[in-house]
Amino acid sequence: MEDRNVKRVTQIIVTMAAFLAPFEVSSITVALPTIGREFAMDAISLSWINTAYLLATAVLLLPFGRFADIHGRKKIYTIGLCIFTIVSFLMTICTCSEMLIALRLAQGIGTSMIFSTGMALLTSVFPPNERGKVLGISVTSTYLGLSCGPFVGGFLTQNFGWRSIFLVNIPIGLIALVLILLKLKSEWADAKGEKFDLVGSVLYSAGLAAIMYGISNFSKWGAGFSSGLIIAGICIIIIFIFMEKRIKSPLVNINLFVTNRVFALSNLAAFLNYCATFATTFFLSIYLQYIKQLSPQSAGILMVSQPVIMALFSPFAGRLSDKIEPRIVSSIGMTLSGLSLFMFALLNNDTSLSYILIILIITGIGFALFASPNSNAIMSSVEKKYLGIASGILGTTRMTGQTISMGIAMFILAIFIGNAELIPENFPQLMISIKTAFIFSGFLCLFGILASLSRGKVR
């Protein structure tokens, strides 16, 4: 009975927190044009509101995942939830664009603690034959956050101002924290007693930050400096990899990638999927509000269709991956995602909203079929003591992919628009940017399909 209660409480807590981060990302995306007008931000600066958050999250996921394996997953998860909730409150009193971006950076730190331990907690508590189902439910919560985000964000932005968006996070975060403190007494630290690799963590974080920061600022600094930063980051990561092979308690067991084909290719598929799809909502929000002249609320209502479909199909996809090889289910999902991106590339000034709705439904089905089966494959392919690091690596591939997706978006915008404000005279160049981004992303999905199909069997 106690074991069943622990399962239920853990699932409720992880599910609640899984709602928060995607809700904030999707809700603030709808509010970006309003924020941009208030602070007179250009398109590239505006994109940093999301990029700063993603950068901080991606860089710290792996160190926090390993730290949680050693010192306790519940402990790191709780601290991350506290940071996320406190920063959400501080955002309601934000007074300038610099403060907003700095707070998003801080919120990314809290999110990295949550994302690096959430799936690890579920996998620690539930046996292999139940993981697809519970991971599917967690993914459903994520998509419910994405679903509510555009609609609630659009409604709040239009009626109460964009700062009101962050108030939603506070009661949810507080309820989850109370449940953890009162109901979840157990702790999970399957690598307890092992040494935390501080030097490796610093090298890894510095290398990844240099790569992602260089990519994100490629359009701003030009090829010379950005390329140098990216190359420096790659060199640091190479040093990190060689060092990890030689120490007793590494941050990352490199053999997970060398000998575990399922783990390596499933993470590669996730990386390519997020590289291809994440900037879709950014471009679509701009397209609907600038080109189609929809209000934030109307744009949110239309965009909510994609995550609603994701939420409806994710539990089914998770259960399906408990019975059928995850690579088959997730490869079908990746194929549908690629199809939707090429369909988005056909957008123009006169595209009907019904056509956009159809694409969003296809996108939602595709991503639902990909995400939870792919996560199930990753978490089921490693030993228990690596669950935190596996969760951290999965989160890193997701966040790195999302950051690179935004970097690609900024680079394309810089080529066709530069630092000019988004005014009607620049709308033709904006449309070219949108089409180019979707075509490029569609081809990225083709490589993702290949990685997904090549991973091999989990069972």
Question: How do you describe this structure in short?
Answer:
With 459 residues, the protein is mainly α. It has helices at residues 2-39, 43-71, 73-91, 97-125, 128-160, 169-183, 198-216, 218-221, 223-244, 255-258, 261-277, 279-291, 296-303, 305-323, 326-344, 353-379, 387-416, 427-453. Helix content is 81%, strand content 0%.
Return the structural class. mainly alpha
Question: How many structurally independent domains?
Answer: 2
Q: Judging from the principal axes of the Cα atoms, what is the shape?
A: globular
* CATH architecture tag of the largest domain: Up-down Bundle
Q: Encode the helix/strand succession as letters.
A: HHHHHHHHHHHHHHHHHH
Task: Say which CATH homologous superfamily of the largest domain is assigned.
Answer: MFS general substrate transporter like domains
